[in-house]
Amino acid sequence: MKIGIIIEREYLTRVKKRSFLIITFLAPIFFAALMFLPAILMTQSDKFEERRTIAVCDETTLFTNRLEETDANTFLYINKDIDEAKSLVKDGEYDAVLYIPATTLNVPTNAEIYSMKQLPMSLTSHIRSQMKQVVEREKLLASGIDPAIVKASATTINLQTIKMSDKDDGEQKSFGEFEFILGLALALVIYFVIFIFGSQVMRGVIEEKTNRIIEVIVSSVKPFELMMGKIIGIALVGLTQFLLWGVLTLVISGVASSFLPTQDVFSAGTVMTEQIAEAGINTADDSTLTEVFEVINSINFKDILWCFLLYFIGGYFLYSAMFAAVGAAVDNETDTQQFVTPISLLLVIPMVCSSLIASAPDSSLAFWISMIPFTSPVGMMLRIPFGVPIWQVVLSVAILFITFIIFTWLASKVYRTGILMYGKKTSWKEIFKWIKY
């Protein structure tokens, strides 16, 4: 009953704060902007980029009238020496001059571009690409090879990974790149949630301890009940915020998409198609949409969601208990660094090893990182989208919650002693003494 009152107090106190309301309602707008702003800017990029006239001083005459112009760049071929061309740039007649010096070799490979302003990387990349195509074509022709034949011989190999199981129909396509991105996204969410809301637990304890409110509260509530009430109350605040973020993001995205021009949607779809192609999915035919749905269907979102909730709750409770103990052991936030740093490193380990886990999700390293309770909330979420045997998930969750119970008991012993300690520098040695009391 008392824990329920504490949970209600912690929840309502934080939900009614102005900072909570501002972050809750502004974050979805930010998320929606991240989704639609790139598509809008991509289609309107030509309006933001000023047109440039590039003078081409080609001593080799190999590139004359062979550089492809763009919407923002016009190439003007001039028959002047480089010094005179640079003077014209200084006078403002040209925005830049591309100088291709004569060479003793059959094909030039060096060039210089002069400008009074910093040129965008897109321009230099475009010039480099165009010159490369011309040079390669000339080399092929010099060797008696038709460039059209070389272009026609270019072939893309699509290698599809199929995961098998003991069932008769147990074959399913696997898309490692998407599974890694999904796992990394879920791991990052758990990583940041643990630190953000765990730190709130720690700061709440320090604030109450500093204001001496804690002395009044513990006169009617057991320290363990107070600690658990704070942890659960702040956890509910986090879940409420995530739920509101999801709903508001979908609503804002739906409203924004109704006002977004049709060509912007097509541009966004084109970008997505290119990204899918880079990830190894064939987009050369009309089956692109089917393959995208295959990617989605290959992921068991139901099991991933359940695992996410279990590791979210278990990881949050485990680390929040430790953060609460740290808050009770110190008098201000400046003294928390020596205790928070070792705790933080435990969660950083799986993030550092994320690429190794993704490349070999069944390796012994990935297995042990997903079993050790301090790293399993992040480590297991990196592995889950790739498919993990059910016994490993059950074992990992069991170890996590057993460790949570043990550390909650240990943290409560530190908490009940530390919350009434004032004006004394706390060390690890002192904390171990409190545990033995």
Features:
single chain; 437 residues; alpha/beta; D-Maltodextrin-Binding Protein, domain 2; 2 domains; four-stranded mixed sheet; two-stranded antiparallel sheet
Write the topology of this structure:
Blueprint: H1 2-15, H2 18-43, H3 45-48, E1 52-58, E2 73-77, H4 82-90, E3 96-100, E4 112-115, H5 121-142, H6 147-153, E5 161-164, E6 171-174, H7 176-210, H8 213-217, H9 223-259, H10 262-278, H11 288-297, H12 301-329, H13 337-352, H14 354-359, H15 364-369, H16 376-383, H17 390-418, H18 428-436
Parallel strand pairs: 1-2, 1-3
Antiparallel strand pairs: 3-4, 5-6
Helix pairs in contact: 1-9, 2-9, 2-10, 7-9, 7-12, 7-13, 7-16, 9-12, 12-16, 12-17, 17-18
Structure, explained:
The protein is of the alpha/beta class and 437 residues long. It contains 18 helices and six strands. The longest helix is centred in the middle third of the chain and has 37 residues, at 223-259. The protein is elongated, with a radius of gyration of 31 Å. Mean pLDDT is 77; it is low at 262-286.
Helical run tally: 18
Q: Which overall shape is indicated by the principal axes computed on the Cα atoms? A: elongated
Percent helix range? 55-70%
Topology pattern, helix = H, strand = E = HHHEEHEEHHEEHHHHHHHHHHHH
Parts with pLDDT < 50 across at least 5 consecutive residues: 262-286
Distance between the termini: 27 Å
What fraction of the residues are assigned to beta strands by DSSP? Answer: 5-15%
Give the beta-strand count.
6
Structural class: alpha/beta
What's the mean pLDDT score?
A: 77
> Rg to the nearest angstrom?
31 Å
Largest sheet, if any? 4 strands, mixed
Overall tally of structural domains: 2
Strand order of the largest sheet: 2-1-3-4
